[in-house]
Amino acid sequence: MLSPNERILAQVQESMDRLGVAEKTDPPPPSKPLDYSHVSALSALAGTAGAALISAVLWKILQTVVDLYTLHPFTSDIYFVNRITVVVRTAVVGLLALGSGISGVTSLGLLLLFFRVSSDTVSKTVGGDQGNDAE
Predict the structure, then answer these.
(1) What is the largest CA-CA distance in the chain?
(2) How far apart are CA 52 and CA 107, in angstroms?
(3) How far apart are alpha carbons 92 and 87 in whole angstroms?
(4) Torsion sign across C-alpha atoms 61, 67, 72, 76
(5) Reported pTM
């Protein structure tokens, strides 16, 4: 007895044979080392500062909104209104936290890019571009 996945795979293979379509099994192209020569260390550092600032501002807004929701809870006699209020609160807090987190991770990534570009620049300057040709 064939499993559902095996039956579907057999049907796909039968259709491919009937249509004369061959499955491509080309190996992936070899990966090339990344070229950071077009990236400026100063622009990476400026991007880091901008993303960190956005993350900090969103985090501060998040804290303010949470404090507002905590100090001034909304209550209503209508059940539907209470549920919608909870959904809106959750969405606002979740989106602010998500935006702050994404901006923070982006800031960290740009900081790491700054270090990488700076170290490549320093090694090319000090080492005279020795051993950096990956070709």
Answers:
(1) 76
(2) 5
(3) 9
(4) positive
(5) 0.68
Domain count, the chain: 1
Residue 24 falls inside a structural domain: no
Q: Residue 50, Cβ neighbours under 10 Å: how many?
A: 14
Burial class (CB in 10 A: 0-12, 13-18, 19+), 26: exposed
Instruction: Check pLDDT > 80 for residue 129.
Output: no
Residues in Cβ contact with 2 at an 8 Å cutoff, skipping those fewer than 6 apart: 10
pLDDT, tens only, 50-100: 999 999 999 999 999 999 999 998 888 999 999 999 999 999 999 999 999
Cα 37 to chain center, whole Å?
A: 23
Determine the structural domain holding residue 56 and report its residue range.
Answer: 39-120
User: Which residues make Cβ contacts (< 8 Å) with residue 20, sequence separation at least 6?
Assistant: none
